[in-house]
């Protein structure tokens, strides 16, 4: 099964709050103001631009149906 990915660009002032030694849990990224639906996992920081956070979410049958409905 595949996954969706999403890049979140933070204002540089907020990016200073991103931990440098680990990826953030959902409660951590929500606490700095990132708003998105549940189920997204922070999986990487874009090293050349640390204010860009990379998230992914597993593609499952229910969100695949939602995606197809959005296309129609």
Automatic annotation (TrEMBL):
PROSITE patterns listed in its UniProt record: CKS_2
> A single Gene Ontology molecular function, please?
cyclin-dependent protein serine/threonine kinase regulator activity
In terms of InterPro entries, this protein maps to: Cyclin-dep_kinase_reg-sub (IPR000789), Cyclin-dep_kinase_reg-sub_sf (IPR036858)
Q: What's in the keyword line of the UniProt record?
A: Cell cycle, Cell division
Note the superkingdom of the native organism: Eukaryota
Q: Name one Pfam family in it.
A: CKS
> In the UniProt record, does the keyword Cell division occur?
yes
State what this protein does. Answer: Binds to the catalytic subunit of the cyclin dependent kinases and is essential for their biological function.
Q: Family, per the entry?
A: Belongs to the CKS family.
- Name of the featured protein: Cyclin-dependent kinases regulatory subunit
**Native source organism of the sequence:** Paralvinella palmiformis
């Amino acid at each position: 099964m595949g996954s969706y990915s999403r890049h979140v660009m933070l204002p540089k002032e907020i990016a200073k709050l991103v931990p440098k030694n680990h990826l953030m849990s959902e409660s951590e990224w929500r606490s700095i103001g990132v708003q998105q639906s549940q189920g997204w996992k922070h999986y990487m920081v874009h090293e050349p631009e640390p204010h860009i956070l990379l998230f992914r979410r597993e593609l499952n049958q229910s969100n695949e149906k939602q995606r197809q409905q959005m296309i129609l």
